[in-house]
Structures are given as structure tokens and as C-alpha cells.
């Protein structure tokens, strides 16, 4: 069993573990398993060992929160000497001369970046594959590891690294976390400060981990908020639960609804009050989400990618984005935020399923049509995207197991802005009451 990030960092700070040896072992695991899992677009073997040696020699080693911890980074951020692929051959492939904010924060904390993880082109879909490979669920390789942070989730769930970085624009941290049995946190808007916001402010950075404590630790580094590493013990909370699929009220697979029941029962046993209640999502909110899902990537493609080299499904998506850009307005977002705030005057936390359908199968989705990709993408993410539009923090945590498939079932916890510590505290209570297997 791979040690947690908390355990590795503690042992490195105490001089009990050598960062170079820790990194060498992580690289060995990647070499042995990634041919099946397909987590990485690029493994930084030579560079990672050199970086680990630098960490070991740092004079501030005893103060580093991620001292010597191997970390996988989603292939969308600036890393010195690498290019951000975004799952595409259509973008620039000139290596960056300096780190972006995420890599810089990880390195400052003592982490070792062992590789860049696979994503779907422009991070559009909850299935991560590209022309070089497919990211598979380590528990059930016939199923996708999710997306768009699917490679990061596969790397953690397979035990290749203890923690990984992801981004979440419509559920891209929480969906793969749910599919792979991990803790995945989308922080509220503005918690991770960066020069520009993706997808009209809907996308943000977040952690993927096998334990709540590891997710909290990585979140504290990504957001430069050390206090987030301390997971609180929450007092009694007013928790709403709902299994109603937003807007469409589509049928929900029974195991996904049962996960909400199980989580509610566990949290009631921790002293919280539970009430069935559903926010007023609204059709206008769904339209605002869809408009941004089209227009955000279209704006990025126009600025950074060669259109004719994009995959056929992506070219269709970008064309639709050009048509919907005029419909991206703040009014629908403001209206939805007001309704969400009203809901949380009566409730402290909302529990829903994370997934609205079972995970899609693992295959070369980039070879299929836009419609073949869009339909399963929209359906599986029914519960997650609304909270990106609102900018509220949301977390996915595993609680159960599918009765016939080797897949976990998870729930999404949502809180008002500033609720990241509360969500982590509740996740820790669920973990203590109902421990889950950490990796495949």
C-alpha cells in the first residue's frame, strides 16, 4: 500500500525517508502499471529524480508541507521545460521557460512533479483519452477513469502517486473522483487565485486523493491557504439530501441513489440533522451552463489552437461555441446564485449523488462524433456543473460499492462560499465511519 501524502511528507521532514528513493519508487510503479491504466501523457523520470535531490538538499526541508511527495499534474498548466498539451496536437508545443502558479506552489511546498496526466481535448468531456492512449478506471479497466481530470484520478486510484492536481469546470475533479473512488474537491470561486479564470469563471483547480487529510493538504497548497490542511470536526449541521436529477428529473440508477441514503444515515449517526430537500435549479440555469460549456472552450481554441488540427468532435463544439457566445450573460448566474443562497439559509450542506449515470466505458472517444460524446457527458454530469456556475465549493467522497461491478458509489457534498473546511470535516467523518479501500 502506497503511503499517504501526509505520511510521506512527515517522514521526509523527520529524515526517515529520502525524497529521491520515494520518487524512484513512484516512477517504478508508473513504469509497471501505466501501460494498462493510461494515466500519464508524459512521465518526467529524469527531471523528477533531479527535483527530488533538490528537495532533499533544501535548508527549509523540515518546514515543507509536501516534502518529497510525488505529485501528478494535469496536462493543462505551465511546468518549466514542458508544454501543456490539453489532450491535443493542435496547440503550441513550445516548452515553458518558467512555472505557472500551480507548479510554482507545488514546488515551493516541496512536491516532486513526476508527470503530466492525460486529458480529453480542451478538457471538454468526462472521458479522458487522446491519440496516444486511454485513461482507464483502475478498479474496472473496461470503464473510463472519468474526465477531464481522468488521468490524475487514474494515477491516484492505481496507487502510482498519493495525490494529484486537477481542474474542475463542470465536474472535472468530482466526476473522476467518483468514478475511481477518491476524494475530489472543487473549491469555491476565488479560493485558488490565478491570473485568469477559465470557462468564464467556472473552472478552478482542486485536489484528488485517497484520504480526506491528503485532499485537505493538497488544497491548502494549491490555494496558498495553510489553514485548510487542518481538517475540523464539525458540530451539528443541517444537512439536506436529494436524489432528484436537476431539471430533467431523469431516472437515477438505484446504486447511486442508495449512496445518498447510506451517507445520510452515517452523518445522522454523527449527530447531524437530515432533511430531504432539493434546490430550485431552473431551466435557465441549465441553459447558462450549456452556453458556457460551448463558449469557454471556443474562446480558448480561437486564441491558442489551430482549428483544422483539432479533433472532429472538438471542431463541432467550437463552432457551437461561436454561436452561443452571445448568450453568456451574468443575469442567469446571478439569479441562480440568489436561489442557491436562499436554499442555504435553511440548510448548511446539500448531499446529492456525484454521478447521474454509471461511468461511460473506456474507449477511444476522440474518434467518435460530437453527439456520441456530448450525450453521455451531459447526462453523467447532471449534479455537478450547477455549483461551478454558482462558484460554491463541492466535494465528492466515496461511500459505497456497486452491487455487481467493481465500482465505488460516491456522493457530492455542497456548501455555501467559505465552506471548504466544513466539507472536508464531513468527508472525514464519513471516512472514519465507513473506511474505503485507498487504491487498487
TrEMBL record:
Entry's family note: Belongs to the amidase family.
Annotated source species: Amycolatopsis carbonis
Name of the protein: Amidase family protein
Pfam families for the chain: Amidase
GO MF terms held by the record: catalytic activity
Domain Amidase: 22-424
Amino acid at each position: 500500500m502506497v503511503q499517504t501524502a501526509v505520511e510521506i511528507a512527515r517522514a521526509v521532514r523527520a529524515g526517515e525517508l529520502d525524497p529521491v528513493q520515494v520518487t524512484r519508487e513512484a516512477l517504478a510503479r508508473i513504469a509497471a502499471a501505466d501501460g494498462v491504466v493510461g494515466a500519464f501523457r508524459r512521465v518526467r523520470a529524469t527531471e523528477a529524480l533531479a527535483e527530488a535531490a533538490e528537495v532533499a538538499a533544501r535548508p527549509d526541508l523540515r518546514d515543507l508541507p509536501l516534502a518529497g511527495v510525488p505529485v501528478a499534474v494535469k496536462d493543462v498548466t505551465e511546468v518549466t521545460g514542458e508544454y501543456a498539451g490539453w489532450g491535443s496536437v493542435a496547440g503550441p508545443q513550445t516548452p515553458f521557460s518558467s512555472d505557472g502558479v500551480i507548479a510554482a506552489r507545488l514546488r515551493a511546498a516541496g512536491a516532486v512533479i513526476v508527470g503530466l496526466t492525460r486529458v480529453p481535448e480542451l478538457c471538454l468531456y468526462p472521458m479522458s483519452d487522446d491519440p496516444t492512449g486511454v485513461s482507464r478506471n483502475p478498479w474496472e479497466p473496461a470503464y473510463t477513469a472519468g474526465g477531464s481530470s481522468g488521468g490524475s484520478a487514474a494515477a491516484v486510484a492505481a496507487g502510482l502517486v498519493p495525490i494529484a492536481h486537477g481542474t474542475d469546470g463542470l465536474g472535472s475533479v468530482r466526476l473522476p473522483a467518483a468514478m475511481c473512488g477518491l476524494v475530489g474537491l472543487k473549491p469555491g470561486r476565488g479560493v485558488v487565485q490565478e491570473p485568469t479564470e477559465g470557462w468564464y469563471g467556472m473552472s478552478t483547480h482542486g485536489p484528488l486523493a485517497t484520504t480526506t487529510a491528503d485532499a485537505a493538504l493538497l488544497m491548502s497548497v494549491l490555494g496558498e491557504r495553510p489553514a485548510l490542511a487542518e481538517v475540523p470536526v464539525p458540530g451539528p449541521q443541517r444537512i439536506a439530501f436529494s436524489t432528484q436529477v436537476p431539471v430533467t428529473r431523469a431516472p437515477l440508477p438505484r446504486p447511486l441513489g442508495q449512496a445518498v441514503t447510506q451517507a445520510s444515515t452515517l452523518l445522522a449517526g454523527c449527530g447531524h440533522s437530515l432533511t430531504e430537500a432539493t434546490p430550485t435549479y431552473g431551466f435557465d440555469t441549465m441553459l447558462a451552463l450549456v452556453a458556457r460549456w460551448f463558449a469557454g472552450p471556443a474562446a480558448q481554441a480561437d486564441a491558442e489552437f489551430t482549428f483544422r488540427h483539432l479533433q472532429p468532435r472538438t471542431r463541432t463544439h467550437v463552432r457551437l461555441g461561436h454561436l452561443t457566445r452571445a448568450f453568456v450573460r451574468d443575469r442567469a448566474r446571478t439569479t441562480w446564485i440568489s436561489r442557491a443562497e436562499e436554499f442555504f439559509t435553511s440548510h448548511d450542506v446539500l448531499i446529492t449523488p456525484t454521478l447521474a449515470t454509471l461511468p461511460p466505458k473506456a474507449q477511444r472517444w476522440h474518434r467518435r462524433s460530437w453527439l456520441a460524446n456530448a450525450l453521455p457527458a451531459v447526462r453523467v454530469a447532471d449534479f455537478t456543473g450547477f455549483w461551478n456556475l454558482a462558484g460554491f465549493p463541492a466535494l465528492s467522497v466515496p461511500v459505497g460499492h456497486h452491487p455487481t461491478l467493481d465500482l465505488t458509489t460516491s456522493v457530492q457534498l455542497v456548501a455555501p462560499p467559505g465552506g471548504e473546511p466544513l466539507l472536508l470535516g464531513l468527508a472525514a467523518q464519513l471516512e472514519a465511519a465507513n473506511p474505503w479501500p485507498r487504491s487498487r
